[in-house]
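Database export, one record per block. Field names are fixed; values are copied verbatim from the stored entry.
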Amino acid sequence: MKNNITQVTLKNGMKVMLKEIHTAPIVSSWIWYKVGSRDEPTGKTGISHWTEHMMFKGTKKFPNGILDKAISRDGGRWNASTSKDSTRYFETMPADKIDLALRLEADRMQNTIITEKEVASERTVIISEREGSENEPTFQLSEAVQHAAFRVHSYHHEIIGDKADLLTITRDDLYNHYKTYYVPNNAILCLAGDFDTKTMLKKVKALYEKIPKGKIPPRMIRPEPPQKGEVRLSVEGPGETAFTQIAYHIPNATHPDYFPIQVMESLLNGASGLSYKTARLYRALVDKEFAVDVSGWSESNIDPTLYRITITHRPDKTPEQALSVFDDEIKRIQNELVTNEEITRAVKQAKAVFAYGSENITHQAFWMGYTSMFADYSWYTNYVKNLAKVTPQDVQRVAQEYLQPSNRVVGVYIPKGRG
């Protein structure tokens, strides 16, 4: 994998990352803004995701409705998403059409039109999106667990926001959020694909360098204090299936324990979706018929985050029985050193997932910006190397340190039938 990238900071503070890949005549352009649900105070939760929706409402130069047609007419695709730490927009286009994407993003960075009328119609869309999620038992459970795990830090709320705030956020709130965070010195433009770096840099400078630098955006700094003992909760709702979610506090993506935790996770759950049926928790819970399914995941965040495991229960077994089997597996990884073979297999799986997630041009451009939110590009290029350094002792140590009952929230969804 060629990792030669050019990194430049424009006069207005905007970062630009360019990576030439000449395997296909396409270019993927991602613009990342350092703003997500982490930056939202109570009363304005969900505002970053809502602002992302407003960015598709058009500018004078690119009126609403024209953008979609123009991009699909040129054979491109585009989308956006909001996370806890960032909001990002991408276009992947035939190489000779990428100028459209660059012009569009430079324009909407400063000229997006946010009207009362569009805000009102989007409010309805976002509230119904939120209500749709609330019909899912796992969403309700996940949200309750998140609320309990973060009482102080702004990771407390879901990215979509709390309904109370979605009902009261105003057009001016959205406009001010846009003007505060959508400034070049809070943005990173990442391009990967079939272009010449010098020529591309010239284009980027011509479009973006004239955008005025903004004030340094404010940050929510509210560190979560250590949890003082296990938290247990239950959520009741319609349905026939019980679920348990266990969430452990773990460090952020730049912490030295991040990679040992990834390997531990791979041993317990399998590497995100890849052959997880051979992983320890699946074999103990599903193969032995204590649960229907078990899955786990963690995030790579700016601040300390969660490692979560969700168990889907069988109707003929209680959640307590499954949790007891789960706890036995946790004790096993804490008390017995895993073998070198197991580690090698777990690292191989994680590598495969990582390679699959970085093979196409859109993913290559994604990773440049993604890692820039909490580290730098070397985090990505050294990922596989850092995984391979993990020893059985490292895995045991992080299991003993982080997988403690006092460091977790256990939530159970109790179904009450069809209601």
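Remark 1: The chain has a mean pLDDT of 95.
Remark 2: DSSP finds 16 helices and eleven strands in the chain.
End of record.
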